[in-house]
Amino acid sequence: MATTRSARTVWKGDLFSGNGQTSLETSGLGTYDVTWKARAEDAKDKTSPEELIAAAHSACYSMAFSNILKEAGHTAESIETSAEVDFDTSTGAQISEIRLFVNATVPGISDEDFQKSAQAAKEGCPVSKALASVPSITLDAKLNS
């Protein structure tokens, strides 16, 4: 059974001087201003598709990692994931790299098992799979002691 989530963007004007608003329709959590300048230069209280991708990827990764750990018999006390998404206009406007940074506290797990589970979460997260065309997705996972 599929679950559908939706967002909507209304854009006015041309790409470089226009602006838009992206609304999170399913949750109703908010409407966010978007502009080309916020995407390619300086955010200044606006968001971008790449920031929204970073939010989606960090949330999805954390959820996938917690599930993989649970299936291996471990429960994380905490998983903190941040994602950085690079938007490169020098090569024809593309997402060129995503970096995931994870700090987690998982009692009773070896670093080897932690790293194996962290990598499996990177590969298995549905958002990672959706972003498979990105040239580089890296992972830096740290187990807190």
From TrEMBL:
GO terms for molecular function: peroxidase activity. Pfam families: OsmC. It comes from the Bacteria. One of its GO terms (biological process) is response to oxidative stress. This is OsmC family protein. It comes from Arthrobacter crystallopoietes BAB-32.
